[in-house]
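Can you give me the bound-state structure? Components:
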Amino acid sequence: MQRVFGRPKGLTELPFHYCPGCTHGVIHRLIGEVLEELDIIGDTIGVAPVGCAGFSLDFFACDFVGAAHGRAQAVATGIKRALPDKIVFTYQGDGDIAAIGTAHSIHVAARGEKITSIMVNNAVFGMTGGQMAPTTIGGQITTTSPYGRDCALVGAPIDMPKTVATLSGAVYVAACSVDTPKNIIQAKKCLKKAFQVQQAGLGYALVSILSTCPTNWGLSPADSLKWLQENMLPVYEMGELKMTEEVKAL
Amino acid sequence: MMDKILLAGFGGQGVMFIGKILTYAGMLDGREVCWIPSYGPEMRGGTANCSVVISDEEIHSPVIEYADFAIVLNQPSYDKFLPRVKPGGVLVANSSIVSTAGKRDDIEIIAVPAGDMANELGNVSLANMVCLGALLPKLTMVDLASVEKAVSAVVGKKKPELYELNLAAVRKGLGK
Amino acid sequence: MSKELMKGNEAIGEAAIRAGCKLFFGYPITPSTEIVEYLSKHLPKAGGTVLQGEDEVASINMCYGAATTGARVMTASSSPGFSLKQEGMSYLAAAELPVVVVNVNRTGPGLGGLGPSQADYFQCTKGGGHGGYRQIVLAPSKGQELYDFTMEAFDLADKYRTPVVILSDGFLGQMMEPVELKKRPKADLPAKDWVVGGCKGRAKRKVASYSLTNEIGEVNNLHWEAKFAEMKDSLQRWEAFHAEDAEYLIVGYGTCGRIAKSAVLKARRQGIKVGLIRPITLWPFPEEAFANLDGVKGILTVELNFGQMVEDVKLAVECRTPVYFHNRLGGMLPSENEILRKLGQVFDLAVEV
Ligand SMILES: Cc1ncc(C[n+]2csc(CCOP(=O)(O)OP(=O)(O)O)c2C)c(N)n1
Ligand code: SF4
Ligand SMILES: [Mg+2]
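Here's the bound-state model for the whole set.
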């Protein structure tokens, strides 16, 4: 019998222990498929952050390194400089990449570090119980913005992919979402390209993906997808935000 | 006198809540109290437990090695906490979903079909309060009157109908 | 006065508000997060400001800035985050800026776990940052002390122009106990005649810590040395619990200190003369508590680390009596029975548990 659906080889057999309806799982699956399709599982080193995204350490079938909160891209730089022929990627939350890790997020892009970063943006610090993140949208209530995010006082949300796209060493920057089947297919295309960019040694690639956190948003999985569509999609620019000519030629 | 109580069940069964009610009940009666949650990244499912100490003298060690009393609302908690009750102690189990087949002869095990009894009251999530009621006569540091005060303090003002419902469940567990 | 049932972390937040803290800068980290969450909710209503920094480095430097203006300011974190604050702590000590810093100690090293630990004792008391500074470190052991010591910490910080660390742990932070929300009498504090705020009508001031020449460096360091010596002489504090006639002393602080009290009482019921020294200031370490060891046959130090405070105990004891050590690690706590068993074992006593 022909197998038409199964667990991608890029993932381990461990069942995910993300909360029900959390789209970290969907994103994991897409990356697992990409690793399998590009046949790079055995040549890839992943770097996990601290956050719910950090559980990724156990779920991908390739080698993995756990970094301190916010430092994944610096750690990945070290790995890549030591092993320039290997594929190195980071899988990070929005807090990790856009709060504590901002300096590294900017500088890997400025240096054109030949790594791939995946940013999972759920508009909160998920792991620690739903505090405000730099990506929390205006008016959103979190445990540290109990009266709603006041952009006049704490600033508007940072659109990290757009910011990174301004830096010359970033050759491929995409912003995706996994709220609909169509968007999931698009996200997978972008993820695949981000790894191909690295295989071709062209420079730094970042894929940002909007994701749900039903637990900390206090919504059902279905309502979470709706909330993402109504509140996050209008704020964050979607699409392939930057592609150099060399990337286009791939 | 000192009551050391362990409370355990699935997240969402209201384990922390009955812990808080007991703690408030003790405090409002002028006792020394302390409530300790099992902490950790609890939000990703699994069991929840907390412990409560109520005493008529200062509580130094809040660590419960062996408890005088336990309420367990699900099977994993029963299996885990059965050995943690002191000889001579009392364990209340929600027998609607807990099999008390694994026994101990040196403690009293009170099997209460709390889930079913709560259902009779129209709300299965009151099983925690039914169990609390069943344990109440055994406790030395709090009684029904203090639990009434505590429920009133914790939920009363905001939602009077919840106050009634919670107390109805406690009384049902008490057999009153 | 009526008591409120509060988590330890909330008691710290409430105490800060009542002590006149006007600014809080922090970055969430378990198990300290309830402090920033509590203050986000309540400090603005009291006319204060809470700002979540982009990380702990930012947060401690925001504190540095606010403190130069004379405002009462606090930050809170937990071990990995507290590590990131160490550069800032060194600058605070050098610039002599009053800031209250809470460290809700979790396990380590590295990312570690969320359970209670005392593995940051060295980091807090010996200068976790560079340059050899000292700072006051207070070690509460229950909800009421978390409240009282936080209030006092603001006065101590202002009095000595120094950062003050409250060293709590994940257990104390999450536990709920009744807390009496006492008013603290107004302390007699030196005028803040060093703050910046615009020099209109007075000479220019500066707050900084660079020593341009070695000669200036030595003068600065002599000043700090004298100040640290003064704090060491005047601030040592501890609780002696059944210690007067004790033949065996337990030494423990924070969570271990309170658990040890139960062990002391249990031993006393068996006629064994056990007492407890519970350090309240970890820096300065209460050496004076060990001045008279007449009749003490031995000491057992109990900690949640590989053995840190025990070094200070040994320095204070100066080999006058043997010092033993007991620990639990990785978020686990000892029980009173366990401490008692260890006492029996090291001092060859018949104990009943
Ligand atoms: C130095 C340091 N500061 C703070 C923390 C606490 N912490 C752990 S994860 C996290 C944020 C997680 O948010 P995000 O990166 O968005 O990931 P998510 O959990 O939402 O996937 C924080 C603040 C830490 N581990 N280390
Ligand atoms: S807390 Fe949020 S981000 Fe973390 S696993 Fe649960 S739903 Fe996902
Ligand atoms: Mg996030």
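A couple of observations. Chain C is about 40% helix and 20% strand. The radius of gyration of chain C is 21 Å.
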